[in-house]
Amino acid sequence: MIESGKYKHSKTGNLYKVLGETKHSETLEELVVYEALYENKESKLWVRPLSMFKDLVIVGGEKKKRFEYIKE
Q1: What are 34's strand-pairing partners?
Q2: DSSP codes joined into one string, 2-70
Q3: What is the C-alpha separation between 65 and 61, in angstroms, rounded?
Q4: What are the pLDDT digits (tens) for 25-37?
Q5: What residues form DSSP beta bridges with 62?
Q6: Would the pLDDT of 71 be above 80?
Q7: Which of 20, 54, 62, 66 has its CA 20 to 30 A from that of 30?
């Protein structure tokens, strides 16, 4: 389960709003549905596997959450 609200991407600093979770229709993989809170020509809404959303990444030699929860 993931908490709805604002998140900051660890590498870009861009803000996103998590709208909720869903499942892939064939594999039942858990996915996160989130919205870009900045001007993005590619898409406003995105999905990413929950496991990838919660991953740790290396930023400046440090392990950080890929998306850091900011607030509701």
Answers
A1: 18, 46
A2: ---EEEEETTT--EEEEEEEEE-TTT--EEEEEEESS--SS-SEEEEEHHHHT-EEEETTEEEESEEEE
A3: 13
A4: 999 999 999 999 9
A5: 59
A6: no
A7: 62
Distance between CA atoms of residues 14 and 3, nearest Å: 18
Three-state DSSP state, 72: coil
Query: How far is it, in rounded angstroms, from Cα 72 to Cα 64?
Result: 20
Answering whether pTM is above 0.90, one says no
Q: Which domains does the chain have, with CATH numbers?
A: 5-71 (2.30.30.320)
Among candidate residues 60, 7, 64, the one with its CA nearest the CA of residue 38? 7
The pair of structure tokens assigned to 37 is 């809170």
